[in-house]
Each structure stands twice: as structure tokens, then as C-alpha cells.
Design a protein that fits this description.
This protein is of the alpha+beta class. It folds into two domains: 39 residues; 58 residues, no CATH class. The chain is built from five helices and three strands, in the order βββααααα. A three-stranded antiparallel β-sheet has the order 2-1-3, with no helix packed on it. β1 and β2 form a beta hairpin. The chain starts with a strand and ends with a helix. It binds zinc ion (ZN). The site of zinc ion (ZN) has 8 residues, from loops. The site of zinc ion has 8 residues, from loops.
Length: 116
């Protein structure tokens, strides 16, 4: 039962959808606006898995060095993992902040955002 990520072409909302039987070409509708004009985002599934893997390996009790933050995919990982350990739901707004941080090129800015 794969989980696919879709983007609504109408309102641009992104959401995950569990597909019970992909062969049946299920009709997926946008959760926000009900639109049926959706684009399936192919890379997302692998991306989510690898982030989970990195989070599992990541030890928040040790300070992360500059090398760690050179991989932009690690940005936000510290905060996410700490939140998970503490049982805090950071919500989708945090993901947006992380996405923004990942597009920032200045390492000091990245550290500031990711160690909040
Ligand atoms: Zn929509």
C-alpha cells in the first residue's frame, strides 16, 4: 500500500494519499478544494523514507558540525527529532520553515533556523 504525494493543480495544496490498489487507477481528489486535477509527485516517497532514516541515525545529544549542515537535507532534522522525542507536533508550518531554510545558502542562517 504505497503512499503517494499529490499536488492539486487548482489550489496547489500538497497532500499524501494512501493508495490501496494502484492498479485500479483510483480517483484522488484534493482535500482542500475537492479538485480532481492533480499531479502525482514521484520523488516524494523516497524522500520521506530517507528523511526518516536520517532522523533515526541522528543523535541529538551530540552537537552537529558544519559538515552536517552542508547537506541541506539535514537542515531542520535536529529540531524535528527533538520535537518527536518530546512529543511535540510541529505542524505543517514548521515544514514550510524547513523548506525555506533548505534554500538558504548562508550556513550561519541555516544553523540559526535549524537549532531553534
Ligand atoms: Zn485543491
Amino acid at each position: 500500500m504505497p503512499i503517494y504525494e499529490y499536488r492539486c493543480n487548482q489550489c496547489l495544496k500538497k497532500f499524501d494519499q494512501l493508495i490501496l490498489n494502484p492498479k485500479e487507477n483510483p480517483q484522488v481528489i484534493c482535500r482542500k478544494c475537492g479538485g480532481k486535477n492533480l499531479t502525482r509527485l514521484l520523488s516524494s516517497f523516497a524522500y520521506h523514507r530517507s528523511e526518516e532514516d536520517r532522523m533515526a541515525e541522528f543523535d541529538t545529544s551530540k552537537p552537529a558540525g558544519d559538515e552536517f549542515y552542508k547537506d541541506s537535507r539535514n537542515i531542520g532534522l535536529h529540531a524535528k527529532k527533538r520535537a518527536k522525542e518530546l512529543g511535540i507536533d510541529l505542524g505543517s508550518q514548521f515544514d514550510e520553515t524547513v523548506e525555506k531554510a533548505r534554500s538558504v545558502s548562508n550556513l550561519d542562517d541555516i544553523k540559526k533556523i535549524s537549532e531553534v
